[in-house]
Amino acid sequence: MALLRKFLYNKPHDGLVHVFERIYVTDYELVELYISSVIIGCAEALVKLLKKKSKQNCLAVVSDTLEIDTVKVKIRVKHHVHTTQYLLGVFNMFAIFDSCFRLEPWDQKAYKAYVRNVTSQFQETNPDSSFMIFNFWEADTANKIKDHLSKYYITTMDYPKHYEGCPLLSMEAIYHFLRSSDSWLSLGQQNVFLIHCELGGWPVLAFMLAALLLYRKHCTDENRALEMVHEQAPKSDLLSKMSPLDPSASQSRYLQYVLKRNAEERWLPTDKALKLDCVMIRMIPDFDGKGGCRPIFRIYGRDPLLHLEKTPKLLFSTPKRRPNVQSYNQEENELVKININCNIQSDIVLECINLDADMVKETIMYRVMFNTAFINSHMLIFNRDEIDVYWDKKNQFPKDFHAAVLLSSCFQ
């Protein structure tokens, strides 16, 4: 019982324990669960149970308490938000358009009919609910869902579906999404939001939902938060089909940023301008089939010298000429230093690319995304588990591989 007492927030009914906030199962079922398993994974376990056991496909959104008997679990649902044929109810208070899992482009007429059917059915089956749509799209292209929903007076919040090719968003955009969604949900239990993304947007959508779970303190571990969201996908390999590189390392890093900011009074940290002096590679990866590689670098982000311009751009690219480009191998080069000398600030994407012998063909060896506001030293060190690599290329990096990014102050 001592283990259970630390979860108490309000005095529960006799013989009952309040364990988690806003997780529910039907009031006509008595579900046997070990208390330990409920505490460890109550959110995901109970939501799965709701989806499996309930005769209706619904999203439970009403009660603020979860009351647990010491032997059995009995949780009441006071109100259902019914999902439609094309909406996947995930966790509480939000649902995902199942088109987010598509791998093939839509026919325009079919897509228009799909969006119309989803929204109209949802409104008909949930007349007492208020909802808005969060949409992840390819910026500078036609906003398809917004165009189709404009005549229905449905509020749509738009976000990019990547940051310079990486399935993440800037910390500023992440913060806007978290504050907007949290504020909307906090206005009332009748408020829900629907989540939509254009083709290929599932990787960033999954990341943003994981960030929301952490932000609302429904989860305290970044990797588990990502797992909880990806478990909702119809296929376990969906992420690898949509993202050529495994983005989990950079996404976990940004989820750690969210966890760090949750503990601070001021959520958005102050931008820090730095100079990226060089990159040092220890234990050369094998990308030429001979135990070596020919590395070049590209760096994307905001230019700290342009104070009013926040649009990311290419900040640095290694010139494709000698002596800037050299071949290194594992036998002769245990440690390699490559000069960069590039001013950076805020959200940065660093790509390390192998240049083929013909000096034309390129293959990304690894990619990292980070934010300078969270750097507290003059060096960032990444091992092979902390870089984004192709799904089948990790073994081409030695187990002792390290990439060190050396930084210094940027005097503007």
Structure notes:
The chain has two domains: 2-262, Protein tyrosine phosphatase superfamily (Protein-Tyrosine Phosphatase, Chain A), CATH 3.90.190; 273-409, Immunoglobulin-like. 36% of the residues are buried. α4 (144-149) links the parallel β9 (130-137) and β10. The protein is α+β, with helices and mostly antiparallel strands and 412 residues long. It has helices at residues 2-5, 35-53, 108-125, 144-149, 171-186, 202-215, 222-230, 238-242, 248-262; strands at 16-18, 31-32, 58-60, 67-69, 72-73, 80-82, 87-90, 94-97, 130-137, 156-160, 191-197, 273-282, 292-293, 295-301, 313-317, 328-329, 335-345, 347-355, 362-371, 379-383, 402-409.
Which SSEs are present, and which pair or pack?
Layout (H helix, E strand, L loop, with lengths): L1 H4 L10 E3 L12 E2 L2 H19 L4 E3 L6 E3 L2 E2 L6 E3 L4 E4 L3 E4 L10 H18 L4 E8 L6 H6 L6 E5 L10 H16 L4 E7 L4 H14 L6 H9 L7 H5 L5 H15 L10 E10 L9 E2 L1 E7 L11 E5 L10 E2 L5 E11 L1 E9 L6 E10 L7 E5 L18 E8 L3
Quick overview of this protein structure:
The protein has nine helices and 21 strands.
Features:
412 residues, 21 strands, 9 helices, alpha+beta, Immunoglobulin-like, four-stranded antiparallel β-sheet, Protein-Tyrosine Phosphatase, Chain A, globular, 2 domains, five-stranded mixed β-sheet
- CATH architectural category of the largest domain: Alpha-Beta Complex
So, the CATH homologous superfamily of the largest domain? Protein tyrosine phosphatase superfamily
Strands ordered across the widest β-sheet? 7-8-11-9-10
Number of domains: 2
For this structure, the CATH topology of the largest domain is Protein-Tyrosine Phosphatase, Chain A
Number of helices: 9
Q: What sort of overall outline do the alpha carbons produce when their principal axes are compared?
A: globular
Helix content range: 25-40%
The radius of gyration is 24 Å
Arithmetic mean pLDDT = 78
What portion of the residues fall into strands of 2 or more residues?
A: 25-35%
What's the story with the biggest beta sheet? 5 strands, mixed
Reading the helices and strands in chain order gives HEEHEEEEEEHEHEHEHHHHEEEEEEEEEE
CATH class of the largest domain: Alpha Beta
The number of distinct β-strands equals: 21
Q: Which ranges are low-confidence, i.e. pLDDT below 50, for 5 or more consecutive residues?
A: 1-44, 53-90
Oligomer: single chain
Structural class: alpha+beta
